[in-house]
Amino acid sequence: MLRRLSLLGLLSVGLTSAQTVPPLKLAGSTPPWIPGASFTALPPEAAFRELYGGRIDGVLGTLPGPPPPKGTGELVSIPVGLFPVSVVYSLPGVALNLDIPTLCLMLSGRVREWNHARLRALNPGAALPTLPVLVSARVARNGVSLAAAGACVKAGMWPRAWLKSNWVAGASFRRATSELQRADLTIPGVLMVLGPRDVLGGAQVAQLRSPGGAFVGPEALTLETGLGNAPTPYPGASPSLPAAPFRPLPPATEVGAYPLRGVVWLSMLKEQAYRGRRAAQAQALVRLAEGLQAGASASGLGGGFVGLPLNARPALRLSFQGKRVELDASASASSP
User: Which InterPro entries does the record cross-reference, listed alphabetically (predicted)?
Assistant: First the structure.
């Protein structure tokens, strides 16, 4: 009887330990596009406070993390996906076409009226009003603004010194959040850049000229059309990133490639043995990162989120008690 109770006790302990591995918790500005973790929408500063306090496993957002407080440990940030940046405006009755150079001139305040000659050339026959271009920009650091600045610097329209995640040059309105920006859309003549989650139904979204010359919207960035001529999101990556993981890389001049994209980053502490964490949690975090890099979300008005192709996925190197976190080959989401 005693032996039976002891065996039942051991089995009970084993089952309890196997079941007490807590689910992964993420926070930040960008919800995960695959299952495997709970998510809390928080501003970046608040999300990283939660991470450094040991209350979440990682931060998912459009910028890599800032240096952690002294004594916290090393922070690791890796790209796990891409998203389209939408150009949203308020001109009732006008379906707008833009190219990247003209957009950059508008954002920087050098094209100040909607009936400017550059805009008339891109929109023949459109009834462009004599309204001022009123740019609404976000003063807080964000990856949407950084993506727009990167495209303008790459196009030679902005100096490299303007490559910032919170530029306000040329802005008529300076807002702290995307919610406050969206409120500006009630003002005729407003122009702004937004990420997929911030584009609401009924919003006017501009079509951008693709490398092949066609005008396309952010919804073109889906698994069916691929990513085309995406800008390099980090050193060493391919300049062309298709959405489908095994699709051959399309040429840089492919018609239909949406030209304005940002990067989604997953940030976490490199040493995972902190605040009672277990090795299984670190392994689950690696599997989640690989799943994000291989997955995609549904595409709506503002587009969606897509992972990275196999040849552009950096490995996530975490450690637990000083030893690298390893996965079985069968458990790796990126294994062919």
Answer: Phosphate-bind_PstS
